[in-house]
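I am writing to request your help with a piece of structural work I have in hand. A protein sequence and the structure tokens that stand for its backbone fold form the material at issue. Please examine both parts with care and let me know of anything in them that strikes you as inconsistent. The record follows directly beneath this note.
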Amino acid sequence: MHYDLIIVGAGPAGGSSGLAAARAGLRVAIVDRRLLPRHKTCGGGVPMGVAPYLEGFDPRPIAEATVRRMHQTFLFGRSVIAPMNAPDDRPQVELWCVRRDVFDHALASAAAQHGADILEGIRVDGVEARGAEIVVTGRSQGSGVAWRASADHVIAADGATGVVARLMNLQPHRLPATAMEAEVPHRWGTGHASLEPDTIHLEFGAVPNGYAWVFPNRERLNIGAGLFRGSAVAGNTVRKLLMGAMQDYARYLGIDIRWDDATVHAHPVPLWSGRSRLHGAGGRVLLAGDAAALVNPLFGDGIHNAIRSGRIAVECILSGRPAEYSDRVHTSLGVDLRAASRLASFFYRFPKECYSLAIMRPGAARIAARLLNGDMSYRELVPRVMRRIVRALATS
């Protein structure tokens, strides 16, 4: 079978690129090693700023909660609860909380409705340039039956542990990070007074070089923690550290969890760490999303950049200029990620001081929401913020 485009991975990068390519009339296959729907370790916050990049798919009907407030703490104290918008902001910024198994499946299904083939349960083990085409091979996870197809182009959207980048000798610069999360049942009206369906919770002191979170869903809470900067913590100590932060957060918020019965997931997070070459084979293989290490090194969020990079990949293919992909990603995303990385290295070096001087300031939640949404640029904001913090530290 020959396709115009094979996409390896059915996450946000794969689903969005598959949808865009299928809507443009390309013959598309989306290949995922697992059967859909499948769990993905993630907080599940989708900024509304992704909507313009998802023509043909509206995430709002599958959102389990719509967030408009942030509750932030440092070592479970110095609590700040603030709206993400000023009253006269137009539009009012929202964060849509989704379950990733539902979101990813719905996005892939939207691509299928426009003609994409969804090939589930196939583990890709070979990607090779042969003449003018790329040959992709794999095996069915269930039966072990061999699978083979070719394409003019391949988008690798197979995540932090994907194989396509390695097979094509493309290794994006990345900082290793780890996240853990669990989805637990919750009855609204119980626990801490701040537990509301329109509020996300962020705790910045419980994890050195990281933070913990609680995101609302319809009848559940997504509670997790991430270690996002270089640290001496390693091995099983990481799991103990993150698990302890999650348990402490649950106690602080009065969340009743039977941890012995809870399913806790962990996954590596590929934080952006510098400009990289994200295409190979003359532009016929393009890396997108986590496979391209496009995760924000400050917040650890990756959905927005995954969807944008998937769209950029398709635009480069449709324009006949796929070899421009790496430059396009750097110009559109990398410049801002570099500024976010500068702020992250400073924030996680002085978390207590940065919390006091930045997060506790009036309007901080509004700024954070606009950064997550893509309405505000890190490269414009970060120099001002760092100058203010440095001055404050110098006079303290």
Observations:
- The chain has a mean pLDDT of 95.
